[in-house]
Model the fold of this input.
Amino acid sequence: MKEKTEGARKIWDKYKYAALVALIGAGLLLWPALGDGETGAPRKPAQAAGGGWNLQTIQTEMEDILGAMDGVGQVKVMLTVESDGERQLAQDTELSYSGDTAAPEDYSRKSETVRLDGSSGDEAVVVRTTYPTYRGALVVCQGGGSAEVRLAVTGAVAALTGLPTDRVTVAKWQ
Done:
């Protein structure tokens, strides 16, 4: 029995720092989720009231985010869109028919959007969300003359839009 505890102690002595680093890493990964909810929650792109995507609001949010980056300064963003995003809402469908089921004489279908009573009133149940598909982006900023800023802005816009970096252009503000 004493040999087993000595073996365990040798393993512990050998790997205690690795275990400590792994424990700290796990704690750091969980930290944003345990915060006030604002830090770790991903932001959703802006949506218009009717369910479509509001391109102007998305561009304004991107300007705010990019303007907060080091060296960017004043910034304007223009996105071109290939297809708008959409939301597919849950439907409650009722089908009624008369006659034989194999060959009905007459049938009718009635569909109604499924709604839930939420804290902010009636809310439609969203089954699937499709985000907009972007064609390209132009960013004009004060720091656009710096290669470092252009690279950082290009990477940020590519990450936010899903565009390849060759479809993102960063230019210097006059």
Observations:
- The longest helix spans residues 2-34.
- Confidence is low (pLDDT under 50) at residues 35-43, 48-52.
